[in-house]
Structure formats: C-alpha cells, structure tokens
Amino acid sequence: MSLTAKLDTIGAGAERNIAPVALKQMHQATEERQNSGILDEMIRPGQPQSYPTR
Questions:
Q1: Which tens digit of pLDDT belongs to each residue from 11-36?
Q2: Is residue 28 a part of any domain in this protein?
C-alpha cells in the first residue's frame, strides 16, 4: 500500500469519527486559508532567501 493510499484511508476514517459540525468548520477554514493567498507567500524549496541585515 502506498503512502498516499494509507493517508487517504486514515483521512476517511477520521472524517467518520468527527462530528459533522466540526468537520464542516474544518473544511471551511481550510478553504478560507487556501483562498486567502497566504499559501502563495510560502517559502518553497530552492527559493532564494533574503536575510535581514542590521
């Protein structure tokens, strides 16, 4: 079983055990974060960094 398949199985099991109201809030928060643009500002591997100077 691949890692992706294992994680999908774990996620599906978790969704069955989480209250529907809480699950809805979790999905809404994830969607809001993705739509906020904050993920576009994340540092990516290999991206050059600027370091503050004093």
A1: 888 888 999 999 999 999 999 998 99
A2: yes
